[in-house]
UniProtKB/TrEMBL annotation:
Organism listed in the record: Amycolatopsis albidoflavus
Keywords: Hydrolase, Metal-binding, Zinc
Cofactors, names only: Zn(2+)
Protein name: Creatininase family protein
Family annotation (Pfam families): Creatininase (PF02633)
Amino acid sequence: MASRFFAELRASQVEAACGPSSVAVLPVGAIEQHGPHLPLATDALVAEAVSKEVVATHGEDLDLWLLPTISYGRSVEHTWAAGTLSLSTSTFAATLNDIGRSVAAAGIRRLVLVNGHGGNVSEIQTALRDLRLAYGLLTFAVNVFLPESHDPAWAASESGLGIHGGAAETSLVLHLRPDLVDLGSAQRRIPAQMADNVHARFGGSVSFGWLADDFGSEGYLGDPTLASAEAGARGFKSLVGTLGDQLAEIARFDFPDSARTR
């Protein structure tokens, strides 16, 4: 079949098109503030674009089926800002459960959540095991985040704090949808007191609860002034290549002796 978009199948085609070897690819994002320079849909935009590119390239070889994007996520850290559309924890969990149940009913055995929003990570990890238990699915999650050290254009310049609306995300959107970026409103936003911490920091050994406006009223972290469409193109290519490799392993992954998926 020419299209690997699951939603473009007719109901009469599903049984013949999808089966135990199929991999359902579900982009998951968020609609939330990303400072004055990036669109609300940044996370959903990146997750969907990377997923589409990989399914277009490897869909036939790996039997991939692209599901419609879940654009809404769990964005409680951003609900103080106008425009953020956040699901509650229970609603997000129920949504993932219902989609997983429906994927299993379609005869598909593997479900991959391609996540573009850090606030979704813990709930997605919980859902992987719940879906495994409830429906016997083989469940996986990958995150499409660019590490700060990825590109020489910004490597080490954000002190590990470019996690939301920084150089990486801004570069990706400049590559994918430059019409949605207002780079003139971007400024460097690096909280110096946290940059010196060893443990109580993002990626450190101490976790902490936070809201985006804890770091300033504009609600972003990083240095988007370093962003460029060229860096975004390099980052997008890297994300696509990594996801392709990940899906190749997922397509052949199985447990050695599981009664649940025999």
